[in-house]
Hints:
By secondary structure, the protein is α+β, with helices and mostly antiparallel strands. The protein contains 4 helices and 5 strands.
Amino acid sequence: MNLKRIRNHHLPIHRLLILSFEGDIYMAEVQIHDRKFLVLNDKDNKPRVFPSLASVRDAFDGLAVCDTEHAHYSAYDEMIGLRSHDSESMGQKDFYPINSQNLH
Length: 104
């Protein structure tokens, strides 16, 4: 789902999950009611990549976001052989709650 559709239909975002990958790559997943959607580009409906947390904040400015979390994926442990994560293909995943008031 793209942000244009969310804005045009005034859809409430129950949860915004900011996915942080190595190399300053950020993506966003929104939960609207009981369904989750990856945020897509408005033009080509491919996954939208944000260059920073600030750009995510700016993109969601003015939208009704109830809860926000930041998940950081790191392949570091897997690369150096410390541990293997069977359930997580990207390695370590840490969740950091973000106060949605600080996001806007």
